[in-house]
Write a structure and sequence with these properties.
15 strands; elongated; Beta-Lactamase; five-stranded antiparallel sheet
Length: about 700
């Protein structure tokens, strides 16, 4: 059997579009030749309209395939594609006008065949710009898919398809059907243009870039609109290709969506809704962290996990299947789906090769959620979320949506976070129950200690302009000290250190909650003071009344050599300035998180910014170090730490940290025990290249 080569739809559509445009040009040149020589060309005007419609369809097919193929592109790249196409079209228009201006009053300037050729060039560029930009708008409109929005877009596409063929019925007369269709398509365009849910996901810098690109698109539309309906109307061509319902409606749709996107981005209207969404996700994260108690079962955390995932993904239905050896019969939780439909979808899922490879993964830790398309009468896309505990898959959540490609990357990220936190909660619950039932509390707490250590970062974020190291030790098997770092961009890094009141398992659970708060809120690019305010609001919902958390947070800007700092009741941070050869504690006030659980807390938050130089050292630590006592009940104290830093500040961070910890143990005594958790983080700033 002869194997045919694969058909490349994009290249085929482009080739057909070029051929149709050439055919359209040839037909109209022949018609023009007949008019000039008073001959009957024998070509009906309907043939031109057929070619014009085919050109619309082939251009639409090419850009539809091109945009779908690059659907992973971010929003700025999509808008830039529209802006660059507009710039190119306007540039060609201007070049043509300059060419005619250079001809002056010569005979060539009035040559009808040349005018017709350039008219077809302008028509082709105008069509390409309007169709490609409208398809880019479609990708943005359907970013957060709902069934209602998908139906609205489908209705608009059908109406535009009808608009292509209207010329065959009114024969270019532009009477009542034309104006009725124009009003209808204009209303649909306005309705679709209100879907701007992609804008809140832009950063501040990205919004400024999008404003520039949208302004270019608006300017391009304005120029092309002015030229088309002023200059073109003054000239006579064999067939008017631009004055039709399809192109005029596209003009309106592209313009109104660009203008509304520009205005909404400019006034930053959706910012508050994004913050509310992020805060809700942070609260759901905390609910998962504290949902399991020793006397309860795992169904509670799984219920919360199901509800949280459905809320984050706007899912229409879902179910949970436990498939590990511990549940041979399987445990199902269903949401808005019946058994028959669930079995039908399960069969469709199992038939897909990607799912078979996903299920055969030998290292479950590498599993991540996968999104699939389905051919089903009701649900067209699903998301599989694995539940992994102790390097084994215990089950999966299946989220279903009635629209195709209904899950975007933001949904996948937050759902992955929910799944991991739920698995940690379930694992902690099992470990704790096993310790109680088997009376092996100490042995099981060692396992919990390893789980907690996994919550601390194994790699600290930094760049070439500073070095950093950290160490934490729990007085019991688990503790409540916490430190972490986060890279905001190439020049800005966040450092945080915290201490939960109390010790043992309760402190360890609250420590994991603090990690969830930090990881959820810091991605909002908050200032240190705003972070403390939002963290206090979130922790107030989940901390027990007799617990609180102290913390210090720093934002290091290596480009400006500045440190922005806020403190929430934590022990002061030690700062050594190399030029002054002096160490001092940073003086800044602050109240612990969870102590004051109302709006009054904002009055107790202070933020300060200071500069640093090469060779300066920053030492963050918890009160377990300064309050450590020797056999005479004398505390290690703040002065001893400051003296040690002044002596060893020339060493690298790891050596400074080692000297301080060794001195601490020597002070307490070789066999002495430090009765509190303690942690330390040392930062040393290196040479700054000012030419970068």
């Amino acid at each position: 059997m002869i194997k045919l080569p694969p058909i490349h739809i994009g290249k085929l559509s482009l080739l057909l579009a070029i051929l149709v445009w050439l055919a359209l040009l040839f037909v109209n040149l022949v018609r023009l030749f007949g008019v000039l020589n008073q001959l009957d060309s024998g070509i009906a005007v309907e043939f031109t309209w057929i070619l014009q419609t085919l050109f619309y369809i082939t251009v639409y097919g090419f850009y539809k395939y091109s945009i779908v193929k690059s659907s992973q592109s971010d929003f700025l790249n999509l808008i830039w594609r529209g802006a660059s196409t507009g710039i190119f079209a306007v540039a060609v228009y201007i070049i043509i006008e300059l060419f005619y201006s250079s001809l002056g009053e010569s005979k060539l300037s009035t040559e009808p065949f040349l005018q017709t050729f350039f008219y077809h060039v302008r028509f082709g560029l105008l069509t390409i710009f309007l169709i490609s930009t409208s398809l880019l708008w479609q990708h943005l409109i359907l970013y957060q898919k709902t069934k209602r929005v998908v139906k609205q877009w489908q209705a608009y596409e059908i109406a535009m398809l009808i608009a292509m063929f209207l010329v065959f019925f009114d024969r270019g007369a532009n009477e009542y059907p034309f104006f009725f269709g124009l009003v209808l398509l204009g209303i649909l365009a306005v309705i679709l243009s209100t879907n701007l849910k992609w804008i809140p996901y832009l950063t501040f810098k990205e919004k400024w870039k999008s404003l520039l690109f949208l302004a270019v698109i608006i300017a391009s539309i304005g120029y092309l609109l002015w030229y088309t309906f002023s200059h073109e109307s003054e000239r006579v061509y064999p067939v008017n290709l631009t004055w039709n319902l399809f192109l005029i409606s596209l003009f309106w749709f592209v313009l109104i969506y660009a203008v509304l996107s520009f205005l909404v981005t400019l006034f930053n209207l959706p910012t508050s809704s994004v913050f509310e969404q992020k805060l809700t996700e942070a609260i759901n994260f905390q609910r998962l962290s504290q949902s399991i108690q020793p006397e309860e079962n795992e169904e509670q955390v799984l219920d919360i996990l199901m509800d949280s995932c459905m809320s984050a993904a706007y899912a229409d239905a879902a179910w949970l299947a436990m498939t590990s050896e511990e549940f041979p019969g399987g445990i199902f939780q269903e949401r808005f789906i019946d058994r028959k439909t669930r079995e039908e979808i399960s069969d469709l899922i199992q038939q897909q090769k990607t799912v078979q490879e996903w299920a055969a993964e030998k290292r479950p830790d590498n599993l991540s959620p996968i999104s699939l398309r389905l051919t089903h009468p009701k649900f067209e896309s699903v998301l599989l979320v694995p539940l992994v505990i102790n390097k084994s898959v215990i089950g999966k959540i299946v989220l279903c949506k009635e629209v195709r490609d209904g899950f975007n990357k933001e949904m996948l990220n937050i759902i992955s976070t929910f799944g991991r936190q739920a698995c940690i909660a379930v694992e902690n619950h099992r470990l704790l129950n096993q310790a109680i039932l088997n009376e092996r509390y100490q042995e099981e707490l060692k396992i919990a200690q390893r789980v907690q250590k996994a919550l601390l970062p194994t790699k600290l974020d930094h760049n070439q302009f500073f070095d950093i190291c950290a160490y934490s030790h729990a007085a019991d098997e688990v503790g409540g000290d916490y430190y972490d770092t986060f890279k905001l961009d190439e020049d800005r890094y966040v450092l945080i250190i915290g201490d939960v009141s109390g010790k043992g398992t309760s402190a360890a659970f609250h420590m994991s909650q603090m990690k969830g708060i930090f990881q959820s809120l810091i991605q909002l690019n908050l200032s240190p003071s705003d972070f403390m305010i939002k963290a206090n609001a979130a922790l107030s919902r989940c901390l027990e009344r007799n617990h609180f958390i102290t913390a210090s947070i720093f934002i290091i800007n290596t480009a400006k050599q500045t440190i922005c700092h806020s403190r929430a009741g934590h022990v002061p941070t030690l700062f050594h300035q190399k030029k002054q050869n002096k160490s001092a504690y940073l003086e800044i006030d602050g109240l612990g998180l969870g102590i004051l659980r109302n709006m009054q807390y904002e009055k107790h938050v202070v933020e300060k910014t200071f500069t640093y130089q090469s060779g300066d050292v920053l030492v963050l630590f918890t009160d377990g170090i300064v309050e450590a006592k020797n056999e005479k009940s004398h505390q290690f104290g703040y002065d001893r730490i400051r003296t040690l830093l002044e002596v060893y500040h020339e060493l690298n961070p790891l050596e400074i940290q080692t000297q301080m910890i060794d001195s601490l143990h020597a002070f307490v005594g070789g066999d002495g025990l430090i009765d509190d958790d303690y942690s330390i983080m040392v930062v040393k700033f290196t040479e700054q290249n000012n030419d970068c």
